[in-house]
Structures are given as structure tokens and as C-alpha cells.
Specification:
The chain is an all-alpha fold. Among the domains are: about 95-195, Serine Threonine Protein Phosphatase 5, Tetratricopeptide repeat (Alpha Horseshoe); about 235-350, Tetratricopeptide repeat domain (Serine Threonine Protein Phosphatase 5, Tetratricopeptide repeat). It is about 65% helix and about 0% strand. It contains 18 helices and no strands. The chain has helices at about 20-35, 45-60, 70-80, 95-105, 110-125, 125-140, 145-160, 165-175, 185-195, 200-210, 220-230, 235-250, 255-270, 270-285, 290-305, 310-320, 330-340, 345-350. Helix 16 (about 310-320) packs antiparallel against helix 17 (about 330-340). The protein is elongated. The protein starts with 18 loop residues before the first helix and ends with a helix. This is Sel1 repeat family protein.
Length: about 350
């Protein structure tokens, strides 16, 4: 999430000595340099960075601009967000079509529900019916998937003050779902939704400012402001992004204690990289008291969700007896997991453990 870069316009010919291409190559080398490091306090490598590096290899071999390495991630993000939209319940006092739509929806008659919501929205002007119709059209419930219709009716619902409609409309503008991508246009509906405590919208705002999608470049102060609102409601990604900003002193003072707290929240919400970074904070005592036992546990949790670097950290601690007793069997297992996840040193070190 925070590791991906915004793709710029592709040039007609790729110049490997251009600043953009050199920056991509340096980024690629940094990712794999850290991935293959066996130091417990190495820089974390996120799943998004690994995905980017693999994409970069493909576009580089094909002679295409390195900016294209970002495109699959952006498309996947848009698809994922739109496929998980909930249907909002119609509140008491809605129009006849809206209420009939809700009754049909509750009974499992989604085709009738969608038709009634459409009438309630486009004929009666009921804002909640528009929001429900948008959710159904986005996911193909009760009829064909229709993103342009979803975008149109979420816009209506948002204009009438429904926070959920603003949340989805802003996301569709940002992702280019159902129409052209419009980062600047997404700011107003996302702000409305964020102010209504829609944490995903706060995260989307933070990401837009972090990547410089609006304005004249990255605005880390605003990014940090909105990520703070995204955490803990959107804990896995929102807290993780906030923690990175706090740890690195972007958009404000370095706040290692706040970063450790936010990494812990991200970890508890299931983000592998959050567990890795929380483990690093526990290991080094960054912002919290050093806790080797806790670090060993956090690295193990991250490893068990597929984080290669965490596997190596957990393996070395188990091998060396840091944060607990020596456990050669666990060390061997963790090294083997790191090996399977792409770290070649894990293959060699697993063979050196006598278990």
C-alpha cells in the first residue's frame, strides 16, 4: 500500500540512463538487497514491494518503461474495493419503492430489490435507494455488474448526504471504476466520508496526498493527518501507513512510540508487514521497551502469514536462543519457510541447523 509508486506517463522509448529508470533500478536492487539480508533489524520488505519488483523484472526484460510495473497493483486495488461494497439498509421514512426494495432484498429476491431501488433512486430521488442500487450494481447482485451505473447513482447519493455513497463514489473516482480516473474529483466525496468516520476513505485520502496524486507533489503532513483518522478503523493498512510516517518522521516529528503502537494495531488486524515491523521495534527497543520474547513471537506470526523476512528473523532468534530457549527444530522450520518464500540464504542456513 505505502510502498507502491504512482505510475507516470510512459515515454515512447526507454532510456536506461534516465532518472526515472535509474530510480527504478535502484529501488529494485534495494528490495532484493534487503530481502536477502539476514540481519534481524533489516528494513522490512512488503508484499507490495515484492510484487512491484517481479513486475519490474517483466517490463524491464520487455524493454517497456518501468512505470508500467505499478499498473497491475492499481487495477487489483480497484477491483478488490469495488467487489466488497455492502448494501446499506433503508432507514424508516423512505419512499415506497425504496422500502419495497429493502423488503425484497431481505427476502432474498435481489432482482426485484434492484429494480425497486432503481425506481426509488432515479424516479423518487431517494438517497439511500441510490446507495443500495450502487452497491448492487457494483457487485452484479440482482442483475449484471454495471460500474458506470454504480458510479452515477453513488454520486447522487453522495450529493444528498449519504456517507456510504460518498465513500464508494470517491473510491470509484480514485480508482477509475465506471469512468475516468479523477484523483482531484475524489477529494471532496472522500473528505465527506472521512468526516463521517469512514476509515477506508480517510486511508484513500492519505494515500492520495502521500503519493502526490493531487496538488504539486507529495504532502506528507496531510497524508499523516488522514492516516491518523484511518487508524484504528482501517487498522491493517491505515495503522501500518501511519506507523511508517511516524517512524520515518514524514509529515511531522519522528514518533517511535506512536509508530510501535500503530504497528502493533496493524499486526493485530492481520497485516504481515505490521507484525514484522512491530517485531523490529520490540527487538531494537524503538519507542517501546526492548522485548526479545515479544519480537520472536511477532516475527513468527508474520512468518506464518507468508512474510519471508520475518521467517529469517524468527529462525535466527530460535537458533541463537534470543527471546527464549534455543529451538533448532523451529529454527530449521523457519529457515525452510524463508527458503520457500524466496530467500536463498534460508535454504543454506536450514541445512546448517542440527535438528
Amino acid at each position: 500500500m505505502m510502498a507502491a509508486l504512482i505510475a507516470g506517463p510512459a515515454s515512447a522509448q526507454v532510456n536506461p540512463n534516465s532518472p526515472a529508470e535509474k530510480a527504478c533500478k535502484a529501488r529494485y536492487d534495494d528490495i532484493f538487497g534487503n530481502l536477502n539480508s539476514n540481519r534481524p533489524d533489516k528494513r522490512r520488505i512488503s508484499d507490495e514491494e515484492i510484487d512491484w519488483a517481479l513486475n519490474y523484472e517483466q517490463v524491464h526484460k520487455a524493454g517497456r518503461p518501468c512505470s508500467e510495473a505499478d499498473k497491475p497493483q492499481q487495477q487489483a486495488s480497484a477491483s478488490t474495493r469495488q467487489d466488497t461494497q455492502p448494501v446499506r439498509m433503508v432507514e424508516a421514512g423512505g419512499t415506497g419503492n425504496a422500502m419495497e426494495g429493502q423488503k425484497a432484498y431481505n427476502s432474498g429476491d435481489f432482482a426485484t430489490a434492484r429494480a425497486k431501488y432503481q425506481a426509488g433512486c432515479l424516479t423518487d430521488g431517494n438517497a439511500v435507494a441510490c446507495t443500495n442500487l450502487g452497491a448492487m450494481a457494483s457487485t452484479g447482485k440482482g442483475g449484471a455488474k454495471d460500474l458506470p451505473l454504480a458510479r452515477r447513482v453513488h454520486k447522487i447519493g453522495c450529493a444528498k448526504g449519504i456517507a456510504e455513497a460518498c465513500e464508494h463514489y470517491g473510491s470509484m473516482l480514485k480508482n477509475g471504476s465506471g469512468g475516468p480516473q479523477d484523483f482531484a474529483g475524489a477529494i471532496a466525496p472522500l473528505t465527506t466520508a472521512c468526516n463521517a468516520k469512514k476509515a477506508t476513505s480517510c486511508y484513500d485520502l492519505g494515500a492520495s496526498y502521500f503519493y502526490g496524486r493531487v496538488g504539486n507533489g507529495p504532502d506528507y503532513a496531510k497524508a499523516r493527518q488522514y492516516m491518523a483518522k484511518a487508524c484504528p478503523g482501517y487498522a491493517a493498512d491505515g495503522c501500518y501507513a501511519l506507523a511508517l510516517l511516524q517512524r520515518d518522521g514524514k509529515g511531522g516529528a519522528v514518533d517511535l512510540a506512536g509508530a510501535a503502537r500503530a504497528f502493533a494495531q496493524s499486526c493485530e488486524a492481520g497485516k504481515s508487514d505490521g507484525c514484522l515491523e512491530y517485531g523490529v521495534a520490540q527487538y531494537s527497543g524503538a519507542g517501546i521497551s526492548a522485548d526479545l520474547a515479544g519480537a520472536r513471537s511477532s516475527f513468527g506470526k508474520a512468518c506464518n502469514t507468508g512474510n519471508a523476512g520475518a521467517c529469517m528473523n524468527a529462525a535466527m532468534m530460535a537458533r541463537d536462543g534470543q527471546g527464549g530457549t534455543r529451538d533448532p527444530a523451529a529454527a530449521k522450520r523457519y529457515f525452510n519457510l524463508g527458503c520457500k518464500l524466496g530467500i536463498q540464504d534460508g535454504c543454506k542456513l536450514a541445512g546448517q541447523v542440527g535438528a
